[in-house]
Amino acid sequence: MNHSTYMQKALDLAKLGWPAVAPNPMVGCVIIKDNKIIAEGYHQKFGEAHAEVNAINSLEPGFDFSDCTLYVTLEPCSHHGKTPPCSDLIIAKKFKKVVICNVDTNPLVGGKGIEKLKKAGIEVESGVLEKEGRELNKRFFTFYEKKRPYIILKWAQTNDGFISLDPVPENKNENWITCDDNRKLVHIWRSQEQAIMVGTKTVACDDPELTVRLVEGKNPIRILIDKDLKLKPDSKIFNDEAETLVFTGHQKPSFGNTFYIQIDFSKNILQQILNKLADSNISSLIVEGGTTLLQSFINENLWDEARIFKNPDKNFNSGIKAPQLDLSKALQEKSGTDYLLIIKNPLLS
Hints:
The protein is of the alpha/beta class. The chain has helices at residues 3-15, 51-57, 86-92, 112-119, 130-136, 138-146, 180-192, 200-206, 269-279, 291-299, and strands at 28-33, 36-42, 69-74, 97-102, 123-126, 150-158, 162-164, 195-199, 221-225, 244-248, 258-262, 284-287, 305-311, 320-321, 331-335, 338-344. Helix content is 26%, strand content 25%. The chain has a nine-stranded mixed sheet with strand order 11-10-9-8-12-6-13-16-15, with helices on both faces. Strands 2-1-3-4-5 form a five-stranded mixed sheet, with helices on both faces. The chain has a two-stranded antiparallel ribbon with strand order 7-14.
Protein backbone atom coordinates (compact mmCIF):
# COMPACT_ATOMS: atom_id res chain seq x y z
CA MET A 1 0.00 0.00 0.00
CA ASN A 2 1.04 3.62 -0.57
CA HIS A 3 0.21 6.98 1.01
CA SER A 4 -2.90 7.48 -1.13
CA THR A 5 -4.36 4.11 -0.19
CA TYR A 6 -3.98 4.70 3.54
CA MET A 7 -5.25 8.27 3.30
CA GLN A 8 -8.29 7.18 1.30
CA LYS A 9 -9.11 4.77 4.11
CA ALA A 10 -8.84 7.65 6.58
CA LEU A 11 -11.11 9.81 4.39
CA ASP A 12 -13.68 7.00 4.21
CA LEU A 13 -13.63 6.76 8.00
CA ALA A 14 -14.00 10.54 8.33
CA LYS A 15 -17.29 10.49 6.37
CA LEU A 16 -18.86 8.31 9.07
CA GLY A 17 -18.92 11.30 11.42
CA TRP A 18 -21.25 13.43 9.28
CA PRO A 19 -23.36 15.31 10.30
CA ALA A 20 -22.89 14.63 14.03
CA VAL A 21 -19.49 16.39 14.14
CA ALA A 22 -20.73 19.73 12.71
CA PRO A 23 -19.54 22.45 12.94
CA ASN A 24 -16.28 20.56 13.48
CA PRO A 25 -14.64 19.02 10.39
CA MET A 26 -14.89 15.34 9.52
CA VAL A 27 -11.60 13.66 10.44
CA GLY A 28 -10.42 10.08 10.04
CA CYS A 29 -7.21 8.37 11.17
CA VAL A 30 -5.38 5.10 10.56
CA ILE A 31 -2.22 3.81 12.23
CA ILE A 32 0.24 1.74 10.18
CA LYS A 33 2.91 -0.70 11.32
CA ASP A 34 4.88 -3.00 9.01
CA ASN A 35 2.71 -1.88 6.06
CA LYS A 36 -0.49 -2.96 7.79
CA ILE A 37 -3.35 -0.99 9.34
CA ILE A 38 -3.33 -1.84 13.03
CA ALA A 39 -5.79 0.79 14.28
CA GLU A 40 -8.37 3.22 12.97
CA GLY A 41 -10.68 5.88 14.32
CA TYR A 42 -12.73 8.90 13.37
CA HIS A 43 -14.26 11.98 15.01
CA GLN A 44 -17.73 10.73 15.89
CA LYS A 45 -19.54 13.66 17.51
CA PHE A 46 -18.99 17.36 18.17
CA GLY A 47 -17.32 17.86 21.54
CA GLU A 48 -16.13 14.26 21.81
CA ALA A 49 -12.75 12.62 21.19
CA HIS A 50 -10.93 13.37 17.95
CA ALA A 51 -9.99 10.79 15.33
CA GLU A 52 -6.38 10.40 16.48
CA VAL A 53 -7.45 9.76 20.06
CA ASN A 54 -9.99 7.13 19.03
CA ALA A 55 -7.43 5.33 16.84
CA ILE A 56 -4.74 5.35 19.53
CA ASN A 57 -7.16 4.26 22.25
CA SER A 58 -8.32 1.29 20.16
CA LEU A 59 -4.99 -0.41 20.97
CA GLU A 60 -4.04 -1.78 24.35
CA PRO A 61 -2.47 0.57 26.93
CA GLY A 62 1.30 0.66 26.75
CA PHE A 63 1.42 -0.18 23.02
CA ASP A 64 4.74 0.83 21.43
CA PHE A 65 4.07 3.37 18.63
CA SER A 66 7.72 4.20 17.98
CA ASP A 67 7.77 2.26 14.70
CA CYS A 68 4.30 3.41 13.56
CA THR A 69 3.04 5.95 11.05
CA LEU A 70 -0.16 7.85 11.73
CA TYR A 71 -2.30 8.95 8.77
CA VAL A 72 -4.85 11.68 9.50
CA THR A 73 -7.08 13.71 7.19
CA LEU A 74 -6.57 17.04 8.98
CA GLU A 75 -3.59 18.54 10.77
CA PRO A 76 -3.64 17.46 14.44
CA CYS A 77 -4.86 20.25 16.69
CA SER A 78 -2.36 22.07 18.86
CA HIS A 79 -4.71 23.98 21.17
CA HIS A 80 -6.99 23.19 24.09
CA GLY A 81 -10.61 23.25 22.94
CA LYS A 82 -13.31 20.85 24.08
CA THR A 83 -10.56 18.20 24.08
CA PRO A 84 -6.78 18.31 24.73
CA PRO A 85 -4.36 18.86 21.80
CA CYS A 86 -3.98 15.77 19.61
CA SER A 87 -0.45 16.82 18.66
CA ASP A 88 0.60 16.47 22.30
CA LEU A 89 -0.79 12.93 22.44
CA ILE A 90 0.99 11.94 19.21
CA ILE A 91 4.26 13.29 20.59
CA ALA A 92 3.75 11.50 23.91
CA LYS A 93 3.21 8.21 22.07
CA LYS A 94 6.48 8.76 20.12
CA PHE A 95 5.20 8.10 16.61
CA LYS A 96 7.85 7.80 13.93
CA LYS A 97 5.94 9.64 11.22
CA VAL A 98 2.67 11.53 10.63
CA VAL A 99 1.08 11.87 7.17
CA ILE A 100 -1.55 14.59 6.78
CA CYS A 101 -4.14 15.24 4.09
CA ASN A 102 -4.97 18.93 4.77
CA VAL A 103 -3.38 21.69 6.79
CA ASP A 104 -5.96 23.14 9.20
CA THR A 105 -6.90 26.72 8.21
CA ASN A 106 -8.49 27.42 11.59
CA PRO A 107 -6.21 30.21 12.93
CA LEU A 108 -6.03 28.39 16.28
CA VAL A 109 -4.14 25.62 14.46
CA GLY A 110 -2.92 26.90 11.07
CA GLY A 111 0.33 24.92 10.89
CA LYS A 112 1.08 25.05 14.60
CA GLY A 113 0.29 21.35 15.00
CA ILE A 114 2.73 20.40 12.24
CA GLU A 115 5.39 22.69 13.70
CA LYS A 116 4.99 21.13 17.14
CA LEU A 117 5.33 17.59 15.73
CA LYS A 118 8.47 18.48 13.76
CA LYS A 119 10.07 20.12 16.79
CA ALA A 120 9.51 16.87 18.67
CA GLY A 121 11.49 15.01 15.98
CA ILE A 122 8.53 13.40 14.22
CA GLU A 123 8.72 13.21 10.43
CA VAL A 124 5.71 14.99 8.89
CA GLU A 125 4.36 14.84 5.34
CA SER A 126 1.26 16.76 4.20
CA GLY A 127 -0.82 17.28 1.07
CA VAL A 128 -1.73 13.62 0.42
CA LEU A 129 -5.13 13.56 -1.38
CA GLU A 130 -5.42 17.25 -0.55
CA LYS A 131 -8.14 17.97 -3.13
CA GLU A 132 -10.32 15.11 -1.87
CA GLY A 133 -9.86 16.29 1.71
CA ARG A 134 -10.91 19.84 0.86
CA GLU A 135 -14.03 18.58 -0.88
CA LEU A 136 -14.92 16.43 2.12
CA ASN A 137 -14.60 19.38 4.50
CA LYS A 138 -15.79 22.11 2.12
CA ARG A 139 -18.02 23.58 4.83
CA PHE A 140 -15.16 23.81 7.33
CA PHE A 141 -12.68 25.36 4.90
CA THR A 142 -15.24 27.84 3.53
CA PHE A 143 -16.13 28.92 7.07
CA TYR A 144 -12.54 29.74 8.04
CA GLU A 145 -11.29 31.01 4.70
CA LYS A 146 -14.31 33.07 3.62
CA LYS A 147 -15.62 33.88 7.12
CA ARG A 148 -19.13 32.70 6.21
CA PRO A 149 -21.15 29.49 5.98
CA TYR A 150 -20.93 27.14 3.00
CA ILE A 151 -24.00 28.17 0.98
CA ILE A 152 -26.17 25.70 -0.92
CA LEU A 153 -28.91 27.12 -3.15
CA LYS A 154 -31.85 24.76 -3.69
CA TRP A 155 -34.97 24.96 -5.77
CA ALA A 156 -37.27 22.89 -7.98
CA GLN A 157 -38.47 23.99 -11.40
CA THR A 158 -40.82 22.79 -14.08
CA ASN A 159 -39.70 21.80 -17.55
CA ASP A 160 -40.63 25.29 -18.77
CA GLY A 161 -38.67 27.05 -16.02
CA PHE A 162 -41.16 28.02 -13.31
CA ILE A 163 -40.84 27.41 -9.55
CA SER A 164 -44.45 28.19 -8.67
CA LEU A 165 -47.85 29.07 -9.99
CA ASP A 166 -48.88 32.66 -9.31
CA PRO A 167 -51.00 33.13 -7.33
CA VAL A 168 -50.22 30.04 -5.27
CA PRO A 169 -53.27 27.74 -5.44
CA GLU A 170 -55.16 26.87 -2.27
CA ASN A 171 -54.57 23.20 -3.02
CA LYS A 172 -50.77 23.13 -2.53
CA ASN A 173 -50.52 19.78 -4.31
CA GLU A 174 -51.18 21.62 -7.57
CA ASN A 175 -47.95 23.54 -6.96
CA TRP A 176 -45.75 20.53 -6.15
CA ILE A 177 -43.00 19.97 -8.72
CA THR A 178 -40.84 17.11 -7.43
CA CYS A 179 -41.70 13.48 -6.79
CA ASP A 180 -42.10 11.99 -3.31
CA ASP A 181 -38.60 10.47 -3.33
CA ASN A 182 -37.06 13.90 -3.81
CA ARG A 183 -39.13 15.47 -1.07
CA LYS A 184 -37.54 12.89 1.21
CA LEU A 185 -34.10 13.69 -0.20
CA VAL A 186 -34.61 17.36 0.66
CA HIS A 187 -35.29 16.37 4.27
CA ILE A 188 -32.06 14.37 4.29
CA TRP A 189 -30.23 17.49 3.08
CA ARG A 190 -31.85 19.56 5.81
CA SER A 191 -30.62 17.10 8.44
CA GLN A 192 -27.06 17.46 7.10
CA GLU A 193 -26.76 21.26 7.25
CA GLN A 194 -26.80 23.62 10.19
CA ALA A 195 -29.24 26.23 8.93
CA ILE A 196 -31.93 26.84 6.31
CA MET A 197 -33.10 30.22 4.99
CA VAL A 198 -36.28 31.62 3.45
CA GLY A 199 -37.77 35.06 2.93
CA THR A 200 -41.04 36.69 3.93
CA LYS A 201 -42.96 35.84 0.75
CA THR A 202 -42.15 32.13 0.94
CA VAL A 203 -43.50 31.94 4.49
CA ALA A 204 -46.58 34.03 3.63
CA CYS A 205 -47.43 31.87 0.59
CA ASP A 206 -46.32 28.38 1.62
CA ASP A 207 -46.17 28.48 5.44
CA PRO A 208 -43.27 25.98 5.54
CA GLU A 209 -42.11 24.36 8.76
CA LEU A 210 -38.53 23.84 7.49
CA THR A 211 -37.93 20.90 9.80
CA VAL A 212 -36.79 17.31 9.25
CA ARG A 213 -39.90 15.11 9.19
CA LEU A 214 -39.61 12.52 6.41
CA VAL A 215 -36.36 11.05 7.77
CA GLU A 216 -34.60 10.76 11.13
CA GLY A 217 -32.30 13.69 11.77
CA LYS A 218 -31.61 16.95 13.52
CA ASN A 219 -33.59 20.05 12.55
CA PRO A 220 -31.57 22.90 11.06
CA ILE A 221 -31.73 26.40 12.54
CA ARG A 222 -34.39 28.31 10.59
CA ILE A 223 -33.26 31.66 9.17
CA LEU A 224 -35.95 34.14 8.17
CA ILE A 225 -35.66 37.59 6.58
CA ASP A 226 -38.68 39.67 7.62
CA LYS A 227 -37.75 43.34 7.30
CA ASP A 228 -41.03 44.81 8.54
CA LEU A 229 -42.28 41.96 10.74
CA LYS A 230 -45.27 41.27 8.52
CA LEU A 231 -45.66 37.57 9.17
CA LYS A 232 -48.40 36.08 11.30
CA PRO A 233 -47.19 34.88 14.72
CA ASP A 234 -48.90 31.52 14.16
CA SER A 235 -46.76 30.77 11.06
CA LYS A 236 -45.20 27.31 11.34
CA ILE A 237 -41.69 28.74 11.18
CA PHE A 238 -42.25 30.13 14.70
CA ASN A 239 -43.24 26.82 16.27
CA ASP A 240 -41.17 25.10 18.95
CA GLU A 241 -39.82 22.36 16.69
CA ALA A 242 -36.59 24.24 15.93
CA GLU A 243 -34.74 27.47 16.64
CA THR A 244 -35.57 30.42 14.39
CA LEU A 245 -33.44 33.52 13.77
CA VAL A 246 -35.38 36.45 12.30
CA PHE A 247 -33.41 39.21 10.58
CA THR A 248 -35.46 42.39 10.66
CA GLY A 249 -35.17 46.16 10.46
CA HIS A 250 -36.87 46.60 13.82
CA GLN A 251 -36.18 45.86 17.44
CA LYS A 252 -38.30 43.11 18.90
CA PRO A 253 -37.81 40.97 22.00
CA SER A 254 -37.16 37.31 21.44
CA PHE A 255 -39.58 34.65 22.63
CA GLY A 256 -39.37 30.88 22.98
CA ASN A 257 -37.14 29.51 20.21
CA THR A 258 -37.47 32.65 18.09
CA PHE A 259 -34.71 35.27 18.20
CA TYR A 260 -34.90 38.67 16.48
CA ILE A 261 -31.74 40.26 15.10
CA GLN A 262 -31.89 43.85 13.88
CA ILE A 263 -29.81 44.77 10.82
CA ASP A 264 -29.52 47.75 8.49
CA PHE A 265 -31.58 47.03 5.36
CA SER A 266 -30.10 49.98 3.47
CA LYS A 267 -26.86 48.16 2.56
CA ASN A 268 -25.18 44.75 2.26
CA ILE A 269 -28.14 42.84 3.68
CA LEU A 270 -26.89 39.35 2.84
CA GLN A 271 -23.35 40.05 4.00
CA GLN A 272 -24.63 41.35 7.33
CA ILE A 273 -26.68 38.19 7.79
CA LEU A 274 -23.79 35.91 6.83
CA ASN A 275 -21.52 37.75 9.26
CA LYS A 276 -24.04 37.17 12.05
CA LEU A 277 -24.34 33.48 11.14
CA ALA A 278 -20.55 33.10 11.18
CA ASP A 279 -20.46 34.77 14.60
CA SER A 280 -22.92 32.08 15.72
CA ASN A 281 -20.55 29.35 14.44
CA ILE A 282 -22.97 28.27 11.68
CA SER A 283 -20.82 26.72 8.96
CA SER A 284 -23.45 25.61 6.41
CA LEU A 285 -26.65 27.10 5.03
CA ILE A 286 -29.33 25.92 2.61
CA VAL A 287 -31.20 28.73 0.89
CA GLU A 288 -34.69 27.43 0.07
CA GLY A 289 -36.36 30.77 -0.51
CA GLY A 290 -38.20 32.05 -3.56
CA THR A 291 -36.69 33.44 -6.74
CA THR A 292 -36.01 36.92 -5.32
CA LEU A 293 -33.93 35.64 -2.41
CA LEU A 294 -32.13 32.98 -4.45
CA GLN A 295 -31.35 35.45 -7.24
CA SER A 296 -29.88 37.93 -4.76
CA PHE A 297 -27.38 35.28 -3.60
CA ILE A 298 -26.52 34.52 -7.23
CA ASN A 299 -26.16 38.19 -8.18
CA GLU A 300 -23.87 38.88 -5.22
CA ASN A 301 -21.85 35.71 -5.90
CA LEU A 302 -22.54 34.49 -2.38
CA TRP A 303 -23.03 30.80 -3.08
CA ASP A 304 -20.91 27.68 -3.28
CA GLU A 305 -23.22 25.05 -4.70
CA ALA A 306 -26.65 24.90 -6.32
CA ARG A 307 -28.96 21.88 -6.36
CA ILE A 308 -31.88 22.13 -8.77
CA PHE A 309 -34.63 19.61 -9.32
CA LYS A 310 -36.25 19.67 -12.75
CA ASN A 311 -39.49 17.85 -13.56
CA PRO A 312 -39.29 17.03 -17.29
CA ASP A 313 -43.00 16.21 -17.48
CA LYS A 314 -44.50 19.27 -15.79
CA ASN A 315 -45.18 22.67 -17.32
CA PHE A 316 -46.89 25.59 -15.58
CA ASN A 317 -46.94 27.81 -18.72
CA SER A 318 -46.97 30.86 -16.44
CA GLY A 319 -46.13 31.76 -12.86
CA ILE A 320 -42.96 32.66 -10.94
CA LYS A 321 -39.85 32.15 -13.02
CA ALA A 322 -36.95 30.13 -11.63
CA PRO A 323 -33.72 31.96 -10.73
CA GLN A 324 -31.41 32.71 -13.64
CA LEU A 325 -28.22 30.68 -13.38
CA ASP A 326 -26.01 29.21 -16.09
CA LEU A 327 -26.51 25.45 -15.72
CA SER A 328 -24.57 24.45 -18.84
CA LYS A 329 -21.79 22.93 -16.71
CA ALA A 330 -24.05 21.35 -14.09
CA LEU A 331 -23.83 17.64 -13.40
CA GLN A 332 -27.20 16.08 -14.21
CA GLU A 333 -28.51 12.80 -12.90
CA LYS A 334 -31.85 11.07 -12.80
CA SER A 335 -33.45 11.36 -9.34
CA GLY A 336 -36.72 9.48 -9.10
CA THR A 337 -38.88 10.77 -11.94
CA ASP A 338 -37.06 14.12 -11.88
CA TYR A 339 -33.60 15.31 -12.85
CA LEU A 340 -31.19 16.67 -10.26
CA LEU A 341 -28.70 19.26 -11.47
CA ILE A 342 -25.75 20.10 -9.24
CA ILE A 343 -23.27 22.87 -9.97
CA LYS A 344 -20.39 24.36 -7.99
CA ASN A 345 -19.85 28.10 -8.26
CA PRO A 346 -17.37 28.44 -11.18
CA LEU A 347 -16.29 31.89 -9.97
CA LEU A 348 -14.99 30.37 -6.73
CA SER A 349 -13.09 27.41 -8.19
